[in-house]
Every structure is written in C-alpha cells, then in structure tokens.
Please model this.
Amino acid sequence: MSAHDTPDDLRYTAEHEWVQQREDGVVRVGITAYAQDALGDVVFVTLPEDGTPVAPGQACGEVESTKSVSDVFAPITGTVTARNAALDANPELVNSSPYGEGWMFEVRPDDPASVDSLLDAESYRALLG
Model:
C-alpha cells in the first residue's frame, strides 16, 4: 500500500483521519495510509470509550509508534458508539490495514450532513502534494 493511497469512497481531514459513512448512519474513523507511514510501526493505541462525546479537532485518542506519539482527532461532532478492541492486542493492524481492520472508532454524528463538509479523496490527495 502506498502512503498516498486514498480510497475514493471515504472522506478525510487535514489531520489525516479518514471517515467512512456506514449504512446505519454511524461513521467509522481511522488514520490514513499517509499518517501510519509517517508514524512508523504502531505499538500502542488509546481510543475513546463508547458513549464519549466528541467534537471536530478534539483529541480523543493516541497512536504510539516506534517514532512518536500522535493524537487522534475527532472529525465530526457526535457520540462514540464503538471502538476497535482488536487494536488493544494488535495495534500493528493500523499499519497493515489502515482502511480495513485497522479502523479505530465509530461515531453517531449529531448532524449526518457534517460528513459532507470533510475533504473528498481528490482534495486530500491535493493536500498531500
């Protein structure tokens, strides 16, 4: 996977999170291939618990790698409905499958239309240069 892989069906933030709109109205959040590549080998992930209210730009988790510790930011306003418990034992999933098994948490948006205000894949690619 290239560090510039940006699936067209996702939305993105300037802080390198991706957002996937699910059929049940919940959105799934993770960090992009670019972000995980910049971090290096992920060794520990801290995620928000179910029921946690989040707001755009708010740090709601951390990703620790062999290089550094980085915050994970909420992309939208809403309430956390799930966290990826698989990352507790296997944080390297963030590296091996950032858009799949390495997802981080799910949020029920206060305003479902807020997802549309995030970057589309083309805009995110332009941000990366």
